[in-house]
Amino acid sequence: xxxxxxxxxxxxxxxxxxxxxxxxxxxxxxxRMLRRQEQPTDFARRLLDHKIEQLDRHGKYLLARxxxxxxxxxxxxxxxxxxxxxAIAEHRAHSQVEVALDSGYEFRLIDPxxxxxxxxxxxxxxxxxxxxxxxxxxxxxxxxxxxxxLLLEGRTAPIKALLLDQAIVAGLGNIYADEALYRARVSPxxxxxxxxxxxxxxxxxxxxxxxxxxxxxxGTSLDDLAYLLPDGRTGEFTARLAVYGREGERxxxxxxxxxxxxxxxxxTHWCPQCQx
Length: 276
Ligand SMILES: [Zn+2]
Prior knowledge:
The chain is of the alpha+beta class.
């Protein structure tokens, strides 16, 4: 599933094409993609003929800010990716949402499993939507260690599960939560409230360095190649994953075997030797 680094990589590639462009055409192949839009016809009506002023991101959501205070939200779901191509380019299978720009380029959301969605919200609708419950963005707004320690205080849930909770910090998913905990040398199974302040400091640093490296390498393209950059390249962070997908392989830090275990229905990878 695309996480913060994949969505941020997508955003950086799209911004030069989208910002300043006017929307001149909308095609939605599967009505399901509009399930978060109260009135599905609002999507095309609110986007058409509107100029895109800014392209932001909060957690795993891409937010295009349009004229008239309209916010076009895109979520990539489990297997979505975006490409930006000339309008005349061949249409790929599973191209569920296509937004044509006056520049001759098209935004296309490719999503085989259709767990992703798009919506065009007014300011009020955005405030009433699930996006309003997101915690601070893990890249641009990560709380200081003292604040993070307060957020974890008294929590008995495993720290891995707390990192996946988008209401605490938005943007981390299964891959980068495991990677950040490895860098912090903290076991994913530890109760969040049991971390020492030093460990919280290391965890914060682990999140920062993991996200920074992942974005620098264009994110992670797993074997299914569900996620690709908008220009079709694969994300190169895959080769740099320290624990995710490496069960049974050697820890690059201590040489022990990487473990994998299901934790609340999510596969969790860590080094039992150097993550205490
Ligand atoms: Zn190790």
